[in-house]
Design a protein that fits this description.
The complex is a heterodimer.
Chain A: H1 3-36, H2 41-51
Chain B: E1 6-11, E2 14-19, H1 26-38, H2 41-82, H3 89-96, H4 99-134, H5 142-166, H6 172-199, H7 217-224, H8 232-237, H9 245-273, H10 282-288, H11 293-301, H12 306-338, H13 357-373, H14 376-405, H15 420-435, H16 443-465, E3 474-479, E4 487-492, H17 496-513, E5 517-526, H18 541-554, E6 560-567, H19 570-580, E7 585-589, H20 604-610, E8 614-619, E9 628-632, H21 639-649, E10 656-663, H22 672-683, E11 690-696, H23 700-708, E12 713-717, H24 723-728, H25 732-739, E13 744-748, H26 752-760
Parallel strand pairs in B: 4-5, 4-7, 5-6, 7-8, 9-10, 9-12, 10-11, 12-13
Antiparallel strand pairs in B: 1-2, 3-6, 8-13
Helix pairs in contact in B: 1-6, 1-9, 1-12, 2-7, 2-9, 2-10, 2-14, 2-15, 3-4, 3-14, 4-5, 4-12, 4-13, 4-14, 4-16, 5-12, 5-13, 6-9, 6-12, 7-15, 9-11, 10-11, 11-12, 12-13, 14-15, 14-16, 17-18, 19-20, 23-25
Classes of the chains: A mainly alpha, B alpha/beta.
Chain lengths: 54, 761
Amino acid sequence: MTIDIIIGIIILAVSLSGVVIFTLWSRHIIDRIHFDSPGTLKEIQETIINERKF
Amino acid sequence: MNENSEKDIEAGSHRISTELSRNLTLLHVTMMGVGMMIGAGVFLGVGNAIKVAGPGGVILTFSLNALIAMFTAMSYAELSSAVPKAGGAYNFARIGFGRGTSFLAGWMEWFASSVAGSLYAVTFALYTVNYLSQLGIITAEGFQLILIEKAVAVTIACFFIYINYRGVSETGNLGAFFTLGQTATLLFIAAVGIFTAFSDPGRLENFKPFMPNGWDKLLITMGFTYVAFEGFEVIAQAGDETIDPRRNLPKAMIYSIFIVVFTYVGVAFAAIVGVKNVGQVPWEWIGSFGGKGFGEAVSQLIPSYGNILVTITVIFASTSALNATVFSATRASYALGRDNMLPPFFAKLHPKKRTPYIALLFTGLIVIATAAFLPTIDVASSASMMFLFLFFLVNLCVIRIRRNMGDEMEYGFVMPLFPIPPVCGILIQAVLAAWLIHMSYIAWIVGPVWIISGIIIYHLYSKHKATITEDEIVVLKDEPIPEKKDFRILISVANPANAVSLAMNCYKFCKAKGDKTEIEVINMVPVPPQVPLSEASKYSQAGEEAIGEAMLYLAPRCNFGSTMRYCRSIARGIVSAASERKADLLIMGWQGQKKKGFTLGSKVDPVMERAGCNVALFKDCNQNKYLNVLVPYAGGPNSNLAIEVASIMVEHDGGRVIIFNMARPGEPTQDVDAFIDERIPKINAPRSLFESKYAISNKRFDTLIEEAENYDLVIIGATRESFFKQQMRKSLPEEFALHHKKPLIMVKEKQQIKSFVNRWI
């Protein structure tokens, strides 16, 4: 296995993991916001601070 | 998807509100995005990317592009959740940056969608003609074959232009069904590739050499294939018809990226391992077919029916995407015509078909001309470049809208790690766009020429003709100051009851600064979002009274100007006015009451945070004279302004200013006298006015409240902590301001570089 392939596998793993993490994280945020109701940025940030669940 | 999602109809004396029915589910809108993405990018992209970057390069191209596209998808998702209406980037730019940038966004969107349409037509032609050639139906070669491909591309483009003219649109269940079928077919090909690699591991040798042409080629192929991730624009356009759009639009955008990245990586892997015994290095063999390389590789992978499978998939994928892009491009040019940014005939509807046929005609010309006269690589590169520019703008919009209107919008999604994703998106997309010059210099001519021509059209035509949109602030009455002087004070009055006291205090500043000072009285007239700005005059009465009161006081004393503006948000209007008028000092009143979720108030917080000038906030300052003034001093960045304001407000004959410093036991105190001596020459006030005072206390808040009771006026600098930090730990100045019951002025000094960045972003 050449160094190119090793680097390639690492880049592939990182980028695909990034996509998966951002997808799940975003989904969690959307569901959490809609569990209460959509609000202004400050209301959402307050929820983040108060609950520390994100 | 109609342009006007909501309108009012006069029916006798009643207003009947009409709107589109919402019938698109999460599945529908996700499949719309997936369908747009799969339309061509993967079919043309695999062969061309392998040719340039090799077998490893094509896999990395799609996976890295997906991560970058995810950054922009989150920007689109956040903005669509806050503005869930049809319009996409055009809407976001109008709200974020105003008319000029929104024109540019619409202009780019029109061209990007049109060129993407050409790309789908070309893809359709390449694969169909190739299949017919293999069947022996077409025998032409060389230039003749290219001519046939171009003719087929133009024919299919004309067909879908006609379909759009007739007003038929593929949406809902049928569209979702087709896209599901395409995706399932591609996933099947990916599964066959993985199975083949397991059963014959020797085929993994096809990945050697992994990056035969070097790593730098990756940037070229990433830029070239970026068009394969452009589907979230069409999802944003579906805001008017989607069920629960604040939840479903952002989810659909994120999910569509998730689906296509694994599809793309899977089929690219299958194409590489599918080739065996071709008498050539596999990646070179695939690359030698260019855009048709993917189909050739799949026909090797599945010899019996691979070719027909890919051809049928391409036919469905490219035609549905072509239909959607022609629709989307027409809608973009129609919207520009409707808002008078392009000549009104762009918004003309056909009397019978009810379709914007002139906008469609111009869109069709772009689609056909690009498909007919540009080589495939240049079409794909041009489409990618325009989308890169468009996404660049959307990433800027999400930053600006969050900063300036975050407390006005209702968000259904806020992206994690803000602002890292949009900033990364901006930087990487700029690099990819720059690197595209290595793939197609024509794209680097076509793209900038289109944008520059848009800027020229805007300045020559649109700027003067465009209709005022609901989101713009409208100047209602403007009586400018006769001459521009060195120091400009903007005084924001809202309440007739305190307008005179604000004007009185403002006049003190005017006197202190001398002849080179001018005053402008401004009143923002807030108009609820439900009310059109054209009917907003009924809200201006209180503002007129407030300005009138201030005028009565100022008129015999100094020159001043006055302005009334309609706005959706008072805070945004004030910040905008301070910036436009190049104010040096903004004076406004504060009732001393806090609204939940805000530090000082919904109008005051954004102004204190974003105004690009010095700000003085007056609370209960109704007295004419102040003899005892307290300035709490902790060495903060607003102390200079606080001491200057104190020197102006205090009565010079018999008054005194106490600069008060507190420290906890064991902590060193600030050298107040040194601070006063340093500031005196700059504020032009007698040294005898100022005295220093120190206190040692563990309870600084209580001590300050007690001390302040002995004074007529307290002048305190605002904190520089962010909203987040203030929520975590209440800051002393703001807590004190809320609890102190006597006259108070809170000041915040202009931040040089940061305020420039704040105003722009």
